[in-house]
């Protein structure tokens, strides 16, 4: 099940593949030097995904390490009203991307734990302060957004979805319908990230 903040029953459409691919590339390019500086950064990769619900937009970006069960995933959630003229889906996605970029910038700059590990490579985040373990409200561009960081790994979740797709024809049909709905949306490219001021230690 995909992580989301709201508990309402709502169908969702995944973010278009072209958008998540572009978002993955932007994060990979912007943080390539930060990754190179990490100790033991054998095989780290960004992965972006998200969903649009009838009342919420969710974006998540993960930094995964080849062969590791844990990843570092930053989730962003915004309230969404499809009937309102503003903010648009594009507006909310841009805010979410900016907020996630700020969190990753702070995580890269965070002091190592007692074992000398960055929060991006540690198996748990409990040794680090200032990290939003639960949905935490903040403000970006004068709009409310909620952030959460955990060690969930989207690669494992994708493997489960792939298994369902192979063994449940109905699951695959519904997934394709949802993807077609999402592709109909026009999404703006994410903005280039700058320095973080989110205050993680």
Description:
There is one protein chain. This protein has 201 residues and is of the alpha+beta class. The chain has one domain (12-183). The chain contains five helices and six strands. It has helices spanning 17-30, 32-37, 89-109, 154-167, 169-183, and strands at residues 12-14, 44-53, 56-65, 71-79, 136-140, 143-150. A six-stranded antiparallel sheet has the order 1-2-3-4-6-5. α4 packs across α5 (169-183). The longest helix has 21 residues, at 89-109. The radius of gyration is 17 Å and the shape is globular.
Topology:
Elements: E1 12-14, H1 17-30, H2 32-37, E2 44-53, E3 56-65, E4 71-79, H3 89-109, E5 136-140, E6 143-150, H4 154-167, H5 169-183
Antiparallel strand pairs: 1-2, 2-3, 3-4, 4-6, 5-6
